[in-house]
Design a protein that fits this description.
- There is one protein chain.
- The chain is mainly alpha-helical and about 140 residues long.
- It contains 2 helices and no strands.
């Protein structure tokens, strides 16, 4: 049989009897300290996790934005090429200046229509935030 640890009661196998009130106070203090330590540990872990998430989002967001800008640049160049090609295609039928006028006119009309639609959408959005429910 193994030897008993110092301070243990040989007959019961537990610590010698102390005042129950002091045991309850001591236990409650220890529990509160342990709870506070656990809370601090949780907050530190949560902060570290959120920092990691922000770093990941910033990294992915930055690279996503770079690819989006590249895509928009290529799309813009494709549309410019389309406009130039339309001028070349129309030139034999209506002349160079006529082709330029038609292409520029259509682009201006398209830009104005899209601008009016955008203005209406932003107007509806601002009314939604201002609380005005006329529309």
């Amino acid at each position: 049989m193994s030897e008993l640890q110092p301070g243990l009661n040989a007959s019961a196998g537990h610590a010698p009897a102390e005042d129950p009130a002091s045991l309850a106070d001591h236990s409650l203090r220890d529990d509160v300290r342990a709870l506070i330590d656990d809370g601090k540990t949780y907050v530190e872990a949560e902060l570290q996790f959120q920092k990691s998430r922000v770093a990941l989002v910033a990294n992915r967001g930055r690279s996503g934005a770079i690819f989006a800008v590249g895509a928009l640049i290529l799309l813009h160049l494709a549309l410019i090429t389309l406009a130039i090609g339309a001028v070349y295609a129309l030139a034999p039928a209506i002349g160079r200046w006529g082709a330029v006028a038609v292409v520029v006119g259509l682009l201006l009309i398209g830009g104005i229509v899209l601008g009016v639609i955008a203005k209406r959408r932003f107007g509806a959005l601002s009314m939604a935030f201002s609380g005005d429910s006329r529309r």
